[in-house]
Structures are given as C-alpha cells and as structure tokens.
Amino acid sequence: GGDLFEIRPQTTYTAADLDWNNAKSRSSVEMNDPKSRPAMAETPRLAGYDTVFVGFPIWWYQAPRIIQTFLESADFSGKTVVLFATSGGSGMGETLKKLAPSCPNAKLIEGKVFRRSTGREQLAAWAEGLDL
C-alpha cells in the first residue's frame, strides 16, 4: 500500500559493469572506494513520509554505494528508515554501520535479508510485524 521510488543510477549498469569478478568493472571500482557516490537518475521527495523502507541487493557484504547517494540526497531527520536486502547467500554484514553516517538524524533499523524464494505473504508478514 505504500508509494514506490526506484533508486536508479543516472547511468544504467550494464552486465559488464556488474561483473564482480572483474576488479575494473564499475561495481568493483565503486565498492572499493568508500567515498564513491554514483549519481541517481532522480532525487526522492520525502515530505510527508515518516517511515521509509530502503531495499537493495547486497554487494560485497554491504549496500551498493548508490544507497548512500540516496540517503545523502534527502533529509531523513526524524524519519524511521528500515533497511532490507536481497542476497543469494550472505547476510547484512556491516550494512547498518556503514549506512548510519549517511542519515545521521534518522532512526535506522536493520531489517532482513530476503532470498529469491520469499513470497509476497512473507514480505507482508515481516513488514507488518515490525515495531516502528
């Protein structure tokens, strides 16, 4: 029932960009530079929202750098930010710790990692069961 905002990079990632086995691929270069902030295609408008769910795939045991771009692009002061992720096998790693400086005045909640097999009912039950 919520509104969706797709966090899209200004320049779309190609399959070659996402090749984590290639140290020179775009994703590898970004993830190896903690200061990297890939540009987003558009800026979110968060006025009127108290709780924001932020979902992303896990890259190198953390959120992709564009998630930091997203969190730093708007004022999350006083908002609750619930993180959740998809991953083929790893957990959240140090995601919460690494994202906290990007939204310092928000209540940041480490959510859950979901696998490909997770269904709509499971997602709804998780979201509805959160103590926000």
Q: Which residue ranges are poorly predicted, with pLDDT under 50 across at least 5 consecutive positions? A: none
Indicate the overall shape: globular
Helix content class: 10-25%
Question: How many distinct helices?
Answer: 4
Q: What proportion strand?
A: 15-25%
- Main β-sheet description: 3 strands, parallel
Order of helices and strands: HEHEHEH
Tell me the span between the first and last alpha carbons.
17 Å
Order of strands in the sheet with most strands:
1-2-3
Q: What is Rg?
A: 15 Å
Q: What does the average pLDDT come to?
A: 93
In quaternary terms, these chains amount to single chain
What is the SS-derived class?
Answer: alpha/beta
Topology:
Elements: H1 26-31, E1 51-57, H2 65-72, E2 80-86, H3 95-99, E3 107-114, H4 120-129
Parallel strand pairs: 1-2, 2-3
3D architecture notes:
The protein has 4 helices and 3 strands, in the order αβαβαβα. It is of the alpha/beta class.
